[in-house]
Amino acid sequence: MSGTRRWDSEALHALLAQLREHAASLGFSQIGVADVDLSDAEPGLLRWLDNGFHGSMSYMAVHGLKRARPVELVPGTVRVITARMDYLPRELADGWQAVEWRRLADPEQAALSIYARGRDYHKVLRARLQQLADHAAALVGPFGHRVFTDSAPVLEVELAARSGIGWRGKHTLVLDREAGSMFFLGEIYVDLPLPLTAPAEPHCGTCTACLDACPTAAIVAPYRLDARRCISYLTIEEPGPIPVEFRAAIGNRIYGCDDCQLACPWNKFAQRSALPDFDVREAVGHGTLLQLWAWDEAEFLRRTEGSAIRRIGFERWQRNLAVALGNALGARGDPAVRQALEGRRDTCSTLVREHIAWALAQAPAPQERPSP
């Protein structure tokens, strides 16, 4: 373990500079270094859990304060290297926010979070974080470390904010003045006493655009998210029925929700990814609800191979599409939508069947003919 070595301050600063340079070559936009003392974040974490804002994500409560105690997760850790990787697709046109708002306004289009339209970010970041750690080992010799990408009890927003990746926005995501919030976070827990990087100053001011834009009022107060109301949680994490009171607000969103980020003024500075991994896959990035509803499970698995979408499984995929099709049926009364929904009733699971029944009930009532 490197914790037994004596480290020269100048050598550690030089090492961090070399890691920054190599991180850029791997597609990372920024790295920082955070301390492991997150004790002043523990009360907020406990309040969030006590309020039940984590919903059915029981693992959040199971791990408890380990999330705020890096040394308990990886003994020997003295620093956390934090990394930012931008994910807007390389080919995304200027004015992309307006394009996304238009997509959300068209009931027949399928809306998926931008981050999910390419390759699974877990795979991309984890492999490249390990390459960064391997590069550090080549420079200084073996050292204790573990890499994480949304895969363990890590208080990643807190660590990112403390290390200067950005500040915690009112929507609870990390924001940067030069990159908005359209990026992934990753961490390397290390036993190297690297120099700490300064935190960023917050710049949300009096803006409430993200709170105002949330379709389900999931941002219950600035910096406080009730996951049970969040469309990203409802369409990805929730394994059971989507609560009826949120179905209409979901609109045509079938995997995640970007509304708070689309509304954020800082995202006019969001950066395109340097990697082809996040290029949009045509089938999921530009499909209509009816096109995606026509997939059977084999096609779903084939089309989503290597994608984060596959993680929810075919049943939740159909459940989400059924809700979106119900909203489309209510908006336009298209007979093709009704026919597609009815055609699946006898071959789907009980969970999906209940959502199909709800969707069919959204059809406009037939207008009565005037009496002669």
Q: Ranges with pLDDT <50 over ≥5 residues?
A: none
Mean of pLDDT: 93
Query: Which class of secondary structure composition applies to the elements?
Result: alpha+beta
Domain count: the total is 2
Measured by DSSP, the beta-strand proportion falls in: 5-15%
SSE order: HEHHHEHEHEHEEEHEEHHEHHHHHHH
Number of helices: 17
Distance between the termini: 91 Å
In the sheet with the most strands, the strands line up as: 1-2-7-4
- CA gyration radius, whole angstroms: 23 Å
Q: Approximately how much helix is present in the residues?
A: 40-55%
Task: Give a count of the beta strands, DSSP E runs of length 2 or more.
Answer: 10
Oligomer: single chain
**Apparent shape:** elongated
The biggest beta sheet reads:
4 strands, antiparallel
In short:
The chain is an alpha+beta fold and 372 residues long. 41% of the residues lie in helices and 10% in strands. It has two domains: 2-287, no CATH class; 288-363, no CATH class.
Q: How does this structure look, described?
A:
By secondary structure, the chain is of the alpha+beta class. The chain has two domains: 2-287, no CATH class; 288-363, no CATH class. The chain has 17 helices and ten strands. It has helices at 9-25, 42-50, 58-63, 70-73, 96-105, 121-140, 156-162, 209-213, 231-237, 244-250, 259-263, 282-285, 289-293, 297-303, 313-332, 335-342, 350-360; strands spanning 30-34, 79-86, 111-112, 145-148, 167-168, 174-175, 183-190, 219-221, 224-225, 253-255. The strands form four sheets. It has a four-stranded antiparallel sheet with strand order 1-2-7-4, with helices on both faces. Helix 1 runs antiparallel to helix 6 (121-140), helix 15 runs antiparallel to helix 16 (335-342) and helix 15 (313-332) runs parallel beside helix 17. The protein is elongated and about 80 Å long.
